[in-house]
């Protein structure tokens, strides 16, 4: 499973809170076991022009004890990102969220529609997958008894979800929610 993780567990970048216009980037790396915090000072002041970016590299364990860095990360990206970064450094990795979409869609194909509706409420990613054309195409092709190859052009034209709810939801479905 670890091969699905890749080099970076998480990364985010953005402008810090006003009044400064500084830019920040956070990367949490698995293979090297480190947290990388980069900052760029954005200023019109002459003494700040051409200033190189700052970079701090720390191990996951050291990050857990580095309260000042945690405060800065929380101020820039918010409490939710701070808590997520801490959990990653503690080794709490959500492997299901990290699976590629095609594998997730394959797993979702075993769910009943009612279960897929509940899954869509879990996260933004699952909502996106449950509402995707690929999910609904698979649902129509594999679960609807009245589907014919002639309907494929209609599905591509008006959308597979529309095909399902127009033609199959109330009468032609192999499964009843």
From TrEMBL:
The record's InterPro entries line, in alphabetical order, gives: F-box-like_dom_sf (IPR036047), F-box_dom (IPR001810)
What's the domain of life for this entry? Eukaryota
UniProt xrefs under Pfam families = F-box-like
- All copies of the F-box domain together span 93-139
- Entry protein name: F-box only protein 36a
Q: Which organism is it from?
A: Lates calcarifer (Barramundi)
């Amino acid at each position: 499973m670890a091969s699905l993780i890749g080099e970076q567990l998480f990364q985010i970048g953005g402008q810090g809170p006003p009044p400064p216009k500084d830019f920040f980037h956070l990367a949490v790396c698995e293979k090297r076991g480190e947290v990388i915090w980069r900052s760029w000072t954005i200023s019109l002041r002459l003494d700040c022009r051409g200033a190189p970016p700052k970079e701090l590299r720390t191990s996951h364990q050291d990050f857990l004890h580095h309260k000042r860095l945690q405060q800065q990360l929380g101020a820039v990206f918010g409490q939710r990102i701070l808590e997520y970064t801490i959990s990653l450094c503690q080794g709490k990795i959500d492997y299901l969220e990290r699976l590629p979409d095609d594998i997730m869609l394959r797993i979702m194909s075993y769910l009943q529609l009612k279960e897929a509706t509940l899954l869509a409420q879990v996260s933004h990613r699952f909502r996106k997958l449950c509402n995707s054309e690929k999910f609904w195409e698979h649902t129509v092709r594999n679960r609807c008894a009245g589907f014919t190859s002639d309907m494929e052009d209609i599905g591509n034209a008006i959308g597979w979800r529309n095909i399902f709810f127009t033609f199959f939801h109330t009468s032609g479905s192999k499964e009843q929610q």
